[in-house]
Amino acid sequence: MNDRHEFIRFALGAGVLKFGQFRTKAGRDSPYFFNAGLFDDGERLGRLAQFYAQRLMQAEAASGERFDLLFGPAYKGITLASATAVAMASAGRNIPFAFNRKEAKDHGEGGTLVGAPMKGRVVIIDDVISAGTSVRESVELIRAHGATPAAVLIALDRQERGGTADHPAGRSATQEVSALYGIPVYAIGTLEDLLGYLSESHSASAQEAADMAHHKDAITAYRARYGVQD
Q1: Exposure b/e, 137-172, CB count within 10 A at least 16 = b
Q2: Burial class (CB in 10 A: 0-12, 13-18, 19+), 11
Q3: Is the pTM of this model over 0.85?
Q4: Counting beta carbons within 10 angstroms of the beta carbon of residue 104, is it exposed (0 to 12), middle (13 to 18) or buried (19 or more)?
Q5: What CATH number has the domain spanning 3-226?
Q6: How many CB atoms lie within 10 A of CB 211?
Q7: Distance of alpha carbon 53 from the chain centroid
Q8: What is the distance between the terminal CA atoms of the chain, rounded to a whole angstrom?
Q9: How confident is the model at residue 201 (pLDDT cuts 50, 70, 90)?
Q10: Residues identified as active-site
C-alpha cells in the first residue's frame, strides 16, 4: 500500500474520515466527511504528524528547496505545526515553528506571534482549505513580518469546486490559493487517493466489500458533479 493510501486507512481507522450523508458549508450533500479535530489523542496526533513531516520532506526533495519555518494558523494549525516540527526533528530535519494568536497580547512579550522569528521561506500547516480565509490571513501576516509564504500543507484535498451546491465555481479552494498567491498546496491525501483506496480490496467479508463498492459509487458520482481537474 502506498503512503497516501496508508493515510486514508489511518484516517478511516481513527474515525476522522467517515462515510454517510453530510451537509457541507456549501449546502452540498457529501457522501464522506473529514474532521481533523478528531485526531485528539497523543498516539493519533503523533502518527498524523509523521504523515505531515513525510509529505513535507518529499516536497523539499522534489523541489530542491528547503523551508525555513513552519507556521500554524490559530487554532488547529497550532497543534499541527508544532507536532510536525517534532516529527521532522525525529526524522533528522530540525526546523523552527511559529503560530499566531487571534488577538494581540497586551502584556509580556506582546504581539500576535509566538515561537521562532518569522523569516525565510515559510510553509503554512493546516488541516484543510475551505474558503481560503485562514491561508489569506496567514499569507498577509507572513509578508507583513518580512518573510516569504512558500507553500501550504494540508491533510486532505477534497478536489472540489468552490461556490455553492447550485452555483459551483470553476476552481477548487486549493487551486484558488495557488493561483492567488503563486505557491503550491501540498496534501497528504486527496479525493483521488480515497477513490483509489476504495478500489482496492481491504475487506474481510462480502458485506464489507459491498459497503466499500457502495461508498466508491457515491463518491464517484459526487466527484463527477463537483470535482475539479488538476
Answers
A1: ebbebbeebebbbbbbbbbbbbbbbbeeeeebbebb
A2: buried
A3: yes
A4: exposed
A5: 3.40.50.2020
A6: 14
A7: 12
A8: 23
A9: low
A10: 105, 107
d(CA 223, CA 201): 21
- What gap in Å lies between CA 214 and CA 10, rounded to an integer? 20
**From edge to edge, which strands make up the β-sheet containing 185-190?**
111-115, 97-105, 69-72, 121-125, 148-157, 185-190
- Rounded to the nearest angstrom, the gap between the alpha carbon of residue 118 and the centroid of all alpha carbons in its chain is 22
Q: What would the pLDDT profile of 65-100 be if each residue is shown by its tens digit?
A: 999 999 999 988 999 999 999 999 999 999 999 999
Cis peptide before 186 (omega within 30 of 0): no
- Side-chain-facing half-sphere of 216: CA atoms under 13 Å: 16
Give domain limits for the chain. Answer: 3-226
In 10 A of CB 194, how many CB atoms? 27
pLDDT in tens, 4-43: 999 999 999 999 999 999 998 888 999 999 999 899 999 9
One-letter identity of residue 99: F
CA angle 145–149–152, rounded 5-degree value? 135
- The answer to whether 118 and 100 are in contact (CB under 8 A) is no
User: Does the CA dihedral 189-221-163-179 come out positive or negative?
Assistant: positive
Nearest-CA neighbor of 30 among 228, 222, 169? 222
